[in-house]
Design brief:
The complex is a heterodimer of chains A (318) and B (429). Chain A is 38% helix and 17% strand. Chain A is of the alpha/beta class and 318 residues long. Chain A is globular and about 55 Å long. Chain B has 429 residues and is α/β, with parallel strands linked by helices. Chain B folds into two domains: 2-51 and 374-427, Urease, subunit C, domain 1 (Roll); 55-362, TIM Barrel (Alpha-Beta Barrel). Chain B has helices spanning 74-84, 102-115, 138-144, 159-170, 183-186, 195-200, 207-224, 236-248, 258-262, 284-295, 311-314, 331-340, 347-362; strands at residues 2-12, 17-26, 29-34, 42-46, 51-54, 56-61, 86-91, 119-124, 148-150, 176-178, 191-192, 204-205, 228-230, 252-256, 301-302, 377-387, 406-416, 419-423, 426-427. The chains are: A alpha/beta (318), B alpha/beta (429). The A-B interface holds A 17, 94-96, 114, 116-119, 121-122, 137-140, 172-174, 177, 200-203, 205-206 and B 193-195, 197-202, 204, 270-271, 312, 315-320.
C-alpha cells in the first residue's frame, strides 16, 4: 500500500467504463465519511457554500433527482432543478443551446439525465461546467453503479472475489452496464441472467458470464441485483407476459435459496413487486434495498464534493 | 486550345494499360496518346510523378437538390466532386420532391449543365414519392436520361413492388439499385449490433437484417431476369450471397463505401454523430470480408454514399441525429491509404473499382482513357500526405468520421470534357 494524491476536481463523471480503480476507491472512501453526515441532527455542512449545481433532467426521475438535490443541499450548495416539461426544450431548443444557457449562469456542476446514449459525453464536450451523468439512455448510470458497489462493500467488506448476479432486462439497463464495468474492475465476478431477448449479444466480451437460466446465475452468489422490468418491453414483444416472466425469471425465496445463505438482495428501484421480485424477498432479512437509497445519497455527496473540492491522499494498490 | 498532359503514369484498367505516356486533348476529347508528343500550340501540364487515371465516377451521391439545399445543392456538390477527383457523379432521388418524374430528371440535368462543374447523372425513384406503393414513371425518366432506378434511403418492404419494379425496369436495360436492410429487423437501431453496441447500450442494426434483404433482392432479380445493383454492401453475409449469386449467373453487381472498408463500429465509442450511417459501420470481421469481396470481384465498385447534412441536424444526441456523412472529398485518399498503400489493391484494381466498373454498371461512355474518348481525367499524387480538414470542404456537409485523419494520396487535378475543373485542390470557376 502506498499513499498517493488522486483528485477528481473538475473531472466529468460520465461512466465507470472510463473510471480508474483508484478514482472509484476515492469516491467509495469519501462516501463512507459522507454517510455520517446524513445521520446527524443538523445535516447541513458548509463545504460547498457558494457553489451552484443544476439538475438537468430530460427524463422522469424521482429518486435520483431527489438524491442529487439533497446531496448538494446537505453540503451547502445551491441546487436548481430543470426538467424538460418546465424548460425551453419543449420549444425545440437543442441540447447544445440548453447547456450553453445553463453554463452562462455561472453553474459549477450540471447533473444530467437524458434518454439518449452518449448524451453525457456530448454535454462534456460542448459545456464547460463539470458534467455528472445521472443516466444516459441505456449506456451508463455511474452513481448507481457506485452506490451498488458501496452497499456491497459495506456489508461484505470487499468486492474482490465476490460472485454478483444481475438479473433481468440487461439490454435496456444503464444500471447493469455501470455495474458490469465497476464490479469487474474491483475484482468481482459478474453473472448476468435474463431472457435472451433482453440480453445484449456479445456482452460476454466484457468479461461477464451470461446465463439464460436464472438458477445458474444465482448458484452460490454473494449478491443478487434484481433489475426493474418495464411493462413496455412486453408490449414490444420481448417477453410474452408478466406472469410468465415472474414464473421463469422472477426472484422469489425458493430461487434465492440457491445463492449463499448471507447473499444480499439489491434492486435499483422502482420495484414491480410480484414481477421481477417477490415481496418476501424485497422486504426480507437479506434485502438492502432501502439501505441502497441512503447509500446513494452518500455517494452523490461524495461525487459532488470531489468534483468541486478535489481529492486527497488515499491508500491505494493501484 | 490543346492541352498536353506530359509524362504522367497512365493507369487505364479498361485496357490493362499502366505506363508513362503523354495525352493530347482537343475539343473535349483525347486526340493522341504516346511518347514525347509535340507541345506545339498546347497548354502543357507536367504530370510527372502523378497517376493519370480515367475520371473517377461516384455512382452513389446525395446532391440534395431540389428541396434540401441546406444540406447540399448542385453547385456545392459538384464542386466537392471536382475537389475529390470525380468527373462524373450519379445522384440519388430522395430529394424534396422525390425524383419520380421526367420533369424533375430533366430539371436536375439542366441545372447541372449550367451550375455544375462535373458530369451529373440522375437516378430516378422506383416508387412514386418513394412511398413503396406505386411504380414511378420509370420508363419516362429513363428516356429523359435517368441511368438507374432506386428507392435508396431505405429498403423496400413491399416484395411485390420490388418484383414489378425489377421486371419493368429490365425492359429498359437499366439497373435497379437497392438499399438492402430489412426494416422490421433494424427498427430504430442506430449502430451495428455487436460487442460495441452491447457496451454502449445503443440499439443495434443486426447484420442479418442486411443479409435477409440482399438474399431477397437477389432472388427477385433472378426471378425477374433483371439487372440488380446492391448499394453500400456492409455485411459479410451479403458478400457471400452476392458471390454465390454471381457464380450462378444472376445479373447482380455491388458497391462498397470507403468508410465500410476502413472503419469499424469501434468508431462509435466517440459518440460522434459523424459515425452514424446506414448501413452502420460494422465489426472487423465484416470489414475483412468486404475487402476480400472487393479483391475477388464479388464487389464491383467503390461508391461514397456522400450524404451531407446541415450542422444543426448532425449536432444532436446520437440517436436523434440523421444518418450519413460526406465522402467525395476524402474517398480517394481513404482508399489509397487504406487499400493501396497497405497492398490490398493495385492501382489498376483501385481505378477499375472507382471508374471503369461504375461506368460499366451505369452504362456510361466513360471510365477509360483512349483516343476518341471524352477527356474526363483524374490526376492524382498517390504519395501526397495530407490531413483532412472538413472546414475546408466544398460540400456543405462538414461531418465526416475522417476529419483530422492523416491520409496518403490526393487528387491534384480533375479534367472534365477537356477542361480543368480542379487544380492543386482548388476548384476552378
Amino acid at each position: 500500500m502506498s499513499k498517493r494524491l488522486i483528485s477528481l476536481r473538475g473531472k466529468d463523471i460520465l461512466g465507470l467504463e472510463t473510471m480508474t480503480v483508484s478514482e472509484m476507491e476515492l469516491i467509495l472512501a469519501t462516501a463512507q465519511e459522507m454517510k455520517s453526515v446524513i445521520d446527524r441532527d443538523i445535516k447541513k455542512v458548509p463545504t460547498l457554500r457558494g457553489k451552484s449545481i443544476v439538475n438537468l433532467f430530460f427524463e422522469a426521475s424521482t429518486r435520483t433527482r431527489t438524491s442529487f438535490e439533497l446531496a448538494g443541499k446537505y453540503l451547502g450548495a445551491d441546487v436548481v432543478n430543470i426538467t424538460t416539461s418546465a424548460s425551453s426544450v419543449t420549444k425545440g431548443e437543442s441540447l447544445r443551446d440548453t447547456l450553453y444557457t445553463v453554463e452562462a449562469m455561472g453553474v459549477d456542476v450540471i447533473v444530467m439525465r437524458h434518454s439518449a446514449d452518449g448524451a453525457a459525453q456530448y454535454a462534456a464536450k460542448v459545456a464547460k461546467p463539470v458534467i455528472v451523468n445521472a443516466g444516459d439512455g441505456a449506456h451508463e448510470h455511474p452513481t448507481q453503479g457506485l452506490l451498488d458497489m458501496f452497499s456491497i462493500k459495506e456489508k461484505k467488506g470487499t468486492l474482490s472475489g465476490l460472485k454478483v448476479a444481475i438479473i433481468g432486462d440487461i439490454l435496456h439497463s444503464r444500471v447493469a452496464r455501470s455495474n458490469v464495468w465497476g464490479l469487474q474492475k474491483m475484482g468481482a465476478e459478474v453473472h448476468l441472467a435474463g431472457p435472451k431477448t433482453l440480453m445484449p449479444r456479445d456482452i460476454e466480451q466484457t468479461g461477464v458470464y451470461v446465463h439464460n437460466r436464472v438458477e445458474d446465475a444465482l448458484d452460490g452468489a454473494d449478491v443478487v441485483n434484481v433489475l426493474r422490468i418495464q411493462r413496455e418491453r412486453q408490449h414490444k414483444g420481448l417477453f410474452p407476459s408478466a406472469r410468465e416472466y415472474a414464473r421463469i425469471f422472477g426472484i422469489n425465496q425458493a430461487r434465492l435459496n440457491l445463492a449463499k445463505p448471507d447473499a444480499l438482495i439489491m434492486h435499483p428501484g422502482p420495484m414491480n413487486r410480484g414481477l421481477e421480485i417477490s415481496p418476501d424477498v424485497a422486504y426480507g432479512d437479506q434485502s438492502v434495498i432501502q439501505e441502497q437509497v441512503k447509500n446513494g445519497l452518500a455517494v452523490r455527496m461524495a461525487v459532488l464534493f470531489l468534483v468541486l473540492m478535489g481529492g486527497k491522499d488515499i491508500e491505494t494498490t493501484a | 486550345m490543346k492541352l498536353l498532359l506530359k509524362g504522367g503514369r497512365i493507369v487505364n484498367p479498361a485496357q490493362g494499360f499502366d505506363a508513362i505516356a503523354d495525352i493530347l486533348i482537343e475539343n473535349g476529347h483525347i486526340i493522341e496518346m504516346g511518347d514525347q508528343l509535340s507541345a506545339e500550340g498546347a497548354e502543357v501540364f507536367d504530370a510527372q510523378g502523378f497517376v493519370v487515371a480515367p475520371g473517377l465516377i461516384d455512382m452513389h451521391v446525395h446532391l440534395r437538390e431540389p428541396g434540401l439545399e441546406a444540406k447540399e445543392d448542385i453547385v456545392s456538390g459538384t464542386r466537392a466532386a471536382a475537389a475529390g477527383g470525380f468527373t462524373t457523379i450519379a445522384c440519388m432521388p430522395n430529394t424534396k420532391p422525390v425524383v419520380d418524374s421526367a420533369i424533375i430528371v430533366s430539371g436536375i440535368l439542366h441545372r447541372a449543365q449550367y451550375e455544375g462543374v462535373v458530369n451529373v447523372k440522375v437516378i430516378g425513384a422506383l416508387s412514386k414519392g418513394q412511398l413503396g406503393t406505386e411504380l414511378a414513371e420509370i420508363g419516362d425518366m429513363i428516356l429523359t436520361g435517368a441511368v438507374a432506378i432506386s428507392d435508396d434511403g431505405s429498403s423496400l418492404n413491399n416484395n411485390s413492388l420490388l418484383k414489378t419494379g425489377l421486371e419493368y425496369t429490365s425492359m429498359f436495360h437499366c439497373p435497379v439499385i437497392t438499399h438492402s436492410e430489412d426494416d422490421s429487423l433494424v427498427e430504430d437501431g442506430v449502430m451495428h449490433e455487436g460487442a460495441v453496441s452491447a457496451m454502449l447500450g445503443m440499439k443495434g442494426r443486426p447484420a442479418v437484417a442486411e443479409d435477409i434483404a440482399v438474399a431477397r433482392d437477389i432472388m427477385l432479380a433472378e426471378y425477374a431476369d433483371a439487372k440488380l445493383h446492391i448499394a453500400h454492401v456492409s455485411s459479410k453475409g451479403a458478400v457471400e450471397l452476392i458471390r454465390q449469386a454471381k457464380k450462378k449467373g444472376v445479373n447482380v453487381t455491388a458497391e462498397v463505401t470507403p468508410h465500410h472498408l476502413t472503419l469499424t463500429d469501434e468508431a462509435v465509442k466517440s459518440f460522434d454523430t459523424a459515425t452514424k450511417v446506414n448501413p452502420p459501420l460494422r465489426s472487423a470481421d465484416h470489414v475483412a470480408a468486404l475487402i476480400e469481396g472487393l479483391q475477388d470481384g464479388t464487389i464491383d465498385a467503390i461508391a461514397t454514399d456522400h450524404a451531407p447534412h446541415a450542422f444543426e441536424e448532425k449536432d444532436m444526441e446520437y440517436k436523434q441525429a440523421p444518418s450519413g456523412f460526406t465522402g467525395m472529398e476524402t474517398a480517394l485518399g481513404v482508399i489509397l491509404t487504406g487499400l493501396y498503400h497497405t497492398g490490398k489493391l493495385t492501382l489498376l484494381e483501385l481505378i477499375e473499382r472507382m471508374s471503369t466498373a461504375p461506368a460499366r454498371i451505369l452504362g456510361l461512355k466513360a471510365g477509360t482513357i483512349e483516343v476518341g474518348s471524352p477527356a474526363d481525367i483524374t490526376i492524382f499524387d498517390a504519395d501526397l500526405e495530407w490531413v483532412v480538414d472538413s472546414s475546408k470542404f466544398y460540400t456543405r456537409g462538414k461531418q465526416t468520421p475522417f476529419d483530422k485523419k492523416a491520409l496518403k494520396g490526393k487528387a491534384v487535378a480533375t479534367i472534365v470534357n477537356g477542361k480543368f475543373v480542379m487544380r492543386n485542390g482548388e476548384v476552378c470557376t
